[in-house]
Amino acid sequence: MSVLTPVYNGEAYLSQCIESVLAQTYGRWEHILVDNASTDATGEILRTYARRDKRLRVYTNDQHVAVVPNHNIAASRIAPGSKWCKFVSADDGLLPECLERMVGLGEAHPRVGLVSAYQLQGDKVGLAGLPYPSPVTAGRTIGRESLLGLLNVFGGASAHLIRADFVRHREPFYDEANLHSDVAACYDVLQTSDFGFVHQVLTYTRAHRGSVTFSVARRLNTYVLGHLKILTQYGPVFLAPDEYTCVLQQRLEAYYTFLARALLTPEGRKIWAYHRDGLRALGFPVSGRRLSRAILQHVRRLLVSPGELRKVVRLIRARQEDEPGWRQWWAPTGSEAVHGTRTPEPRGERVCVR
User: 222-238 and 268-281 are packed helices; what angle lies between their axes, rounded to 10 degrees?
Assistant: First the structure.
């Protein structure tokens, strides 16, 4: 199998990532590392490890490319004989039994195209939701419940294992127009395959200010646009027409709430331009009437909730601490707007499940 690590200026955690692969109880792997023209010590770290272990294959890009294209470059390097593909970001890592458990489940169930497991996210365990033991679930069931906001079992690319044929047969594998194409790829695979889940913590991920997540995704909240794009692409595939219509409207309502808050931030113009252009490209140009309504609703909340007012003051002062509750309020992914992932409003909310 092929473990893939695209990396740019990853010297801080790269050695720990590689060591986590070397420590695997499963031994039939190659580790493909693609250096995206790094300017720090990344290249030397890679060369040092490659000299020690021939299972490491290192490639260096002639020039720097964007994050998603570099992932596609790594995917194109999979060995012809590999049956499985496992991305692991340079600032993430695998627990020792990760490959053994994930590959073992996939090999035992030929229809499984995607395998996931619990993930340590900072100091908390994420990607829960499937009842134990549920090792295999129909892909279309997982796709539907994920789009409805009832499940969160995909995670980023470091969290899951993909059958390599799905990677080879889609060129490029990741949509380079969507920073969150790792999630989109899960839906693509599950259109024609089953989903496997190991009820064990097998990967871990870090959130730090040097990552793309902090520098771009959270600053602009690319999540809400990326996930809306995923919904419009795969909603008609996995959802009934009435479910899709309901979820789409709820996602758009959440989107306009975010846009109303974004106007108050120091980077409001950049955020506004990013989402205005992105929504137009998806066929949802910003509605002045809808935005005005969202602003009025927001003002009403401020008048009756001191807690909401404190959050707005914090927003204006650009205090962007990494707190889950704060992120959910300020930079929702969009799925918070659907049943099962958000505390209902006092008056209740529409439920999109049939």
Answer: 20
User: Would you say 103 and 3 are in contact if contact means Cβ atoms under 8 Å apart?
Assistant: no
pLDDT-flagged residues of the chain (< 70): 208-215, 315-316, 318-351, 354
- Residue 343 three-state SS: coil
- 249-288 pLDDT tens trace: 999 998 998 898 888 787 788 988 999 999 999 999 999 9
Q: Do residues 216 and 204 touch, judged by C-beta distance below 8 A? A: no
Contact 16, 93 (CB under 8 A): yes
Query: Which H or E element spans position 121?
Result: strand 112-121
CA neighbor of 140 nearest in space, from 148, 106, 128, 333? 148
Q: Give the rounded distance of the alpha carbon of 351 from its chain centre.
A: 24
Q: Single out the residue of 48, 42, 47 nearest to residue 70, CA to CA.
A: 42
pTM, whole model, 2 decimals? Answer: 0.88
Residue 223 CB-density burial (10 A; 0-12 exposed, 13-18 middle, 19+ buried): buried
Would you put residue 283 in left (φ > 0), alpha (ψ -120 to 50) or beta?
Answer: left
